[in-house]
Amino acid sequence: MSSKSLRQLPSVDEVVRSHKLKQYVSSYSKHLVTRIVRDVLGRMRADIFAGRKGDVSMGKIQELVAEQLEDMFKPSLKKIINASGVVLHTNLGRAILCDEAIDAIKISAGNAVNLEMDLEKGERGNRDSHLENIICYLTGAEAATIVNNNAAAVFLTLNTLAEKKEVIISRGELIEIGGSFRIPDVIKKSGCRLVEVGSTNRTHASDYISAINKNTAVLLKAHTSNYAIVGFTSSVDLKELVKVGGDRNLPVVEDLGSGSLMDLSRFGLPREPQVRESIEAGAAVVTFSGDKLLGGPQAGIIAGKREYLQRINKNPLKRALRACKLTIAALEATLKLYLNHDTLPQKLPTLRFLTRPAAEIALVAEEAARLLKQRLGSDYSVKVEDGFSRIGSGSLPEEALATKVVSITHMETPPEKIFAMFLANNPPILGRVHREKFLLDMRMIEKGEDAVIFPISNF
Ligand SMILES: *Cc1c(COP(=O)(O)O)cnc(C)c1O
Fold first, then answer.
1. pTM of the model
2. Most CB within 10 Å of its CB: which of 161, 247, 263, 270?
3. 225 lines ligand 1 (CB under 6 A)
4. How does pLDDT run across 5-30, given as a tens digit for each residue?
5. How would you classify residue 123: left for phi > 0, otherwise alpha for psi between -120 and 50, otherwise beta?
6. DSSP for 363-374, written as a single string
């Protein structure tokens, strides 16, 4: 029985030479088509051996080969419409870059550039030279460098300043960020010994002082960006901690997480700790992300006192964690927008989305609801409602931004199914399910340039 089915299978060569695959051979090469045919026939043979019944006709084989070839050439990374209501969504690549950064990436990507070339001296230069001055200008730091992301920035800083020594941190700051970044683990992997002090809700200066000994190398402060401890609480602020460290010649390192380069309250947003404030308070080193509130590419920025930055730059691990020319190009362009606070909210997409007027979001929501009603038909209920967006990436917890959402419900279809239907669209549309309703947040949907806000194809 199974040997009969096996004998029915055509040879690899027969399939490759079949008329139907001719166009694939000419566009994808005979070599590749042959490999895929071998794969498909191999899987069918295994199915037959295992007694699984299925269509093993020539037509089916050709169809599977064509499907596999086409899948192989489709880009895996594709555009998604972010209607989730989370502005800085880690799973969607966080900040959307400004036009200036995109242009800068294009130049760096397609050309030789002076990444490590001093054009005045005609000698080898330093890749930090493109960013250090502007980071120092914007933060007040003496020196700065960048690495791959903020996790790398924390890791490199601790490894440089405290390897084989002790790092003291409050128990209230032993944070975990989504995606397996846990401060205690990073401290250990940096080669340092973690010393926890205080309690979850209360830590005092005396707790740090009594833990300090000859093995102590760093006092670490981590911004509790994705949660808040409320109620009977007490923590040692940076200034006080710098005083404790200064008296004993110990540097204070602060992991700010998002870290802001300006006072966001001038745009009506809640205040997030600013890098400049930490530098002014005397932190030896401050680390923060390039792609959170800053609105740039994935990067970890390390800013602080020159003596510590010099040591960090000399660490051989720095080379392993360094950023590429595309990141440097994009970050430079993004940081330059901060030189003009008046144009920043228009030019920087992250800030534009965060400060978008409710009336403008409402207009987009009305238009989207009208189009979706037409498209989905009368079985669906489509309404514009008030809702809340989130900043995301652990920034500004507790704070929600008033927005307008389009809610979509159906008598028989559960919201999870509608969610999946929108995600299967081309391009995928990411909404969210909240209280038995499927919601599309319009905060990040730009006004429809071609009058079609949602290019819905599949339903
Ligand atoms: C987000 C965050 C990190 C990790 O930053 P990445 O840029 O994602 O590597 C570290 N510490 C804090 C406090 C954070 O909020």
1. 0.92
2. 161
3. yes
4. 788 899 999 999 999 999 999 999 99
5. beta
6. HHHHHHHHHHHH
Asked if residue 345 lies in contact with residue 267, where contact means CB atoms within 8 angstroms, the answer is yes
* Confidence band for 456, pLDDT divided at 50, 70 and 90: low
Which atom number of ligand 1 is nearest to the Cα of residue 151? 9
Please name the amino acid found at residue 3: S
- For the chain, domain boundaries: 2-72, 81-89+354-451, 99-341
- Identity of the amino acid at 413: T
Q: Which CATH architecture has domain 81-89+354-451?
A: Alpha-Beta Complex (3.90)
Instruction: Tell me whether the omega of the peptide bond preceding residue 427 falls within 30 degrees of 0, making it cis.
Output: yes
Could you tell me the two tokens for 357? 């007027």
CA distance 158 to 182: 14
User: Once rounded to an integer, what is the mean pLDDT over residues 183-208?
Assistant: 94
Alpha-carbon gap, residue 128 to 46, rounded angstroms: 55
Please, what sign has the CA dihedral across residues 12, 14, 18, 20?
negative
Residue 183 and residue 150 in contact, taking contact as beta carbons nearer than 8 Å = no
Distance between CA atoms of 63 and 367, rounded to whole angstroms?
Answer: 41
- DSSP annotation of 322 reads B
| pLDDT the model gives residue 449 | 40
Q: Is 223 in the pocket of ligand 1 (CB under 6 A)?
A: yes
- Closest Cα partner for 236 from 219, 249, 248? 219
Q: What is the pLDDT of residues 284-299, one digit of tens each?
A: 999 999 999 999 999 9
289 CB less than 6 Å from ligand 1?
A: yes
Looking from the CA of residue 222, the nearest atom of ligand 1 is 13
Structure tokens of 428? 């995928």
Task: Give the residue carrying structure tokens 């144009």.
Answer: 343
Are 263 and 230 in contact, with CB atoms under 8 Å apart?
A: no
Tokens standing for residue 159? 């490894």
Distance CA 419, CA 408 (A): 10
Question: Ligand 1: does its nearest atom lie under 6 Å from the Cβ of 257?
Answer: yes
Quickly list DSSP for 32-73: HHHHHHHHHHHHHHHHHHTT-----SHHHHHHHHHHHHHHHH
pLDDT at 398: 56
Q: What is the pLDDT of residue 53?
A: 85
Beta-strand relationship, 437-441 and 432-434: antiparallel
Q: What is the rounded average pLDDT of the residues 99-127?
A: 97
Q: Does the pLDDT of residue 421 top 60, yes or no?
A: yes
The CATH code that applies to domain 99-341 is 3.40.640.10
